[in-house]
Amino acid sequence: LDDYRVVATARTSSLPKIAKAGIAPSEDLRLRPLDVTSNEERTTLISEIERDWGGVDILINNAGISYRSVVEHLTEEDEQHQFSTNYFGPTHLIRLCLPEMRKKRAGRIINVSSVGGMMAMPTMGAYSASKFALEGISEALYYEMRPWNIKVSLIQPGFVRSNSFKNVYVSEGARRAVEDSTTYANYYWHMGRFIAGLMNRSNATPERIAAKIVQVMERPNPPLRVPASLDARFFTLMTRLIPRRIYHAILY
Predict the structure, then answer these.
(1) Distant-in-sequence contacts of 8-16, Cβ < 8 A, 24+ apart
(2) Distance in angstroms (rounded) separating the CA atoms of residues 40 and 36
(3) How many CB atoms lie within 10 A of CB 153?
(4) Of 78, 164, 208, 241, whose Cβ has the fewest other Cβ atoms within 10 Å?
(5) What's the pLDDT tens digit per position in 124-134?
(6) Contacts of 223 (CB under 8 A, 6+ apart)
(7) Which residues are catalytic?
């Protein structure tokens, strides 16, 4: 990324991991704390970029969390946390960046979605709902920004080989169900193993997804939706070509 000035962000608690990876600040690379759910941190960051570098030219919304819980076990607080990170945070950042982009009549907004934004699975309802919402608002924004030459794209990874499945949030009801082997315990047990297996065997890596994002950044006219892994392309075709009744039966 020699041609770019980059502001890389992470929650304060995660910044040491960036340093440990050998990434150090430079003239063209800033490392800044950002909790996307914090209005103060969002506003402070974008104000700094506008003051020093004339605004954000490319916004990449990559922050995300996932709850593992059936719908019955979700609380309002769980849902609020899920949406604050995966939907409200990104949309607030977009609104902060748009005025300067419109003035320049140029800009890129890249929202990292998921196959969970095109299909839903048991115990992942809140996650999929947040990604469905991100997909919907991104599509609306895609049309709204065309007169100002602002490109909007959704990156849709499938299962990525990483340990992120170990970092999911578990609702209190889900935790109790697993501990007591009560209703829905089999859902949690089998879905947990299923997702871990797919992620451990996946050919997609975080580095490959990052490379796909760079490709989209550099395309003159990027598409709205970009499947970023082999399984994402498969699920895209599956949802388009198979009749819904059969598709849902296969998935179940």
Answers:
(1) 8/32, 9/33, 9/34, 9/45, 10/34, 11/35
(2) 9
(3) 23
(4) 241
(5) 999 999 999 99
(6) 153
(7) 127
Residue 30 token pair = 């800033």
**Exposed / middle / buried, residue 168 (Cβ in 10 Å: 0-12, 13-18, 19+):** middle
Return the pLDDT at 1.
Answer: 62
Residue 123: predicted pLDDT: 94
Average pLDDT over residues 102-119: 95
> At which residue do the structure tokens 């960036």 appear?
18
Q: pLDDT per residue over 111-126, tens digit each?
A: 999 988 988 999 999 9
Structure pTM? 0.92
User: What's the mean pLDDT in 138-156?
Assistant: 98
- Residue 180: phi and psi, rounded to 5, are -100, 0
Give the neighbor-by-neighbor strand order of the sheet with 225-227.
58-61, 107-112, 150-156, 225-227
Q: pLDDT averaged over the chain?
A: 93
- Mean pLDDT, rounded, for 132-148: 98
Query: Cβ(187)–Cβ(67) under 8 Å?
Result: no
CA dist 93 and 85 (Å) reads 11
Cβ atoms 82, 65 nearer than 8 A: yes
| Residue found under tokens 């580095």 | 207
